[in-house]
Design goal:
The chain is mainly alpha-helical. 66% of the residues lie in helices and 0% in strands. It contains six helices and no strands. Helix 3 packs across helix 5. The longest helix has 17 residues. The radius of gyration is 13 Å and the shape is globular.
Amino acid sequence: VMLLEISNYLEKYLWPNFDSEKSSFAHIMSIIILINEKFRQNVKVWDCFQYQKEKFISFFYKCLSLIYENVLTYQEQIVYVIFMINCFRTFEDETIRKECQKLISLK
């Protein structure tokens, strides 16, 4: 995962090719894993999403739908929960804050 992060796999391949209607489960989980890796390395996470806010919002809701589809293994649930924790920890980003506030009804 570290090598993929160093090569900017998220910014160069995963994110540009994300489509909320066509992207596979593996594609979505790969984005989540690389976002978690960015947090682990303490590097800027949300920069590649800044210019495509609507696309990020559709990604975020696609991520939320994963938990309701009961498709996550135990290991994937751990990755998913870490991703959600990271999202809720980064309220300084306006897009993240707006979407997370909708979930907890703090408008």
